[in-house]
Amino acid sequence: xxxxxxxxxxxxxxxxxxxxxxxxxxxxxxxxxxxxxxxxxxxxxxxxxxxxxxxxxxxxxxxxxxxxxxxxxxxxxxxxxxxxxxxxxxxxxxxxxxxxxxxxxxxxxxxxxxxxxxxxxxxxxxxxxxxxxxxxxxxxxxxxxxxxxxxxxxxxxxxxxxxxxxxxxxxxxxxxxxxxxxxxxxxxxxxxxxxxxxxxxxxxxxxxxxxxxxxxxxxxxxxxxxxxxxxxxxxxxxxxxxxxxxxxxxxxxxxxxxxxxxxxxxxxxxxxxxxxxxxxxxxxxxxxxxxxxxxxxxxxxxxxxxxxxxxxxxxxxxxxxxxxxxxxxxxxxxxxxxxxxxxxxxxxxxxxxxxxxxxxxxxxxxxxxxxxxxxxxxxxxxxxxxxxxxxxxxxx
Length: 396
Hints:
By secondary structure, this protein is of the alpha/beta class. It has helices at residues 21-36, 53-57, 87-100, 120-128, 143-158, 162-180, 195-199, 232-238, 266-279, 296-306, 314-320, 337-340, 345-361, and strands spanning 3-10, 43-49, 78-81, 106-114, 207-209, 212-213, 222-231, 243-252, 288-291, 374-381, 386-394. It has a domain at 3-119 and 220-238: Peroxisomal Thiolase, Chain A, domain 1 (3-Layer(aba) Sandwich). It contains 13 helices and eleven strands. The strands form two sheets. The chain has a nine-stranded mixed beta sheet, with helices on both faces. A two-stranded antiparallel ribbon has the order 5-6. The chain is globular, with a radius of gyration of 19 Å.
């Protein structure tokens, strides 16, 4: 059964000192239901994407808070999904499958994370638990350290110079931070950056894990996003412009980094190609994309996994312009991405779907693509371990 998106909502992302994780769930859920234009009693269940409310907020069993969104939610099924940074996309997947199985008609999906309750060391530890703990997290390996390994492996395999890698990764940062200044919901909406700043090590841009600098890293953020999903034919009756999730795939790689080739994301490519195939399309049909730029190297790797360029050519793709920039053929991360919009881990996957949906509906949150009809979401968990790819199409 094809699934359509009836309503969508995103909170502001950032350090939200006046909003608890409970507040964010309620805000996003109510916002999506209001945007859907249906009564809360018509929602048959709630899927909540969340990575680690236990570590960040001392709260497991989080999905049950969904009943507080509206009195009509009481006694409805609520389910939490956890796939590290892909938790939000896992929630979308669970909701889609419930609708397809005939277990539900309209389903509310909420992605949420409240990360700024912890200090830097606490956040680092909480996130490291998404690595392979016996050989990575417990040995002091952090996610900047893991993705620094990807950057070095990519450089060495393709024979790129350090100067080229620094430039290309800085260009990803500058592009996404500039895009974020057009998105009032973004963590970095009022904090522009520049290519020149990202290129150089300084007191304000230190090396975090060689060769990655602070500007190569995504943000520690709070936030939530939500959607109401339903059978696409039912959504068409209720809505003037309709976007469907034409396909969604999940491909899982080895958890241990030592068991993988880190110069390309094989599992990510498999997920994207499978999503293209199921949707009956190719890379040339994608009009815009929200991809997982947890670190700048990962956006470059994703260009190649998407089929926008051959392996080893992602840096030259962004340097030559005309494709992934805001005015390009396939703008990537118009929202600002994880580097500019923010990365509240459990909210990220749902947020990506919300931003692409709004693009295709013609009511973008921030910069808009030029009359897009097809969008792609690429959301990963861990160091490219769990790879989700979704194709969204405007069908009405």
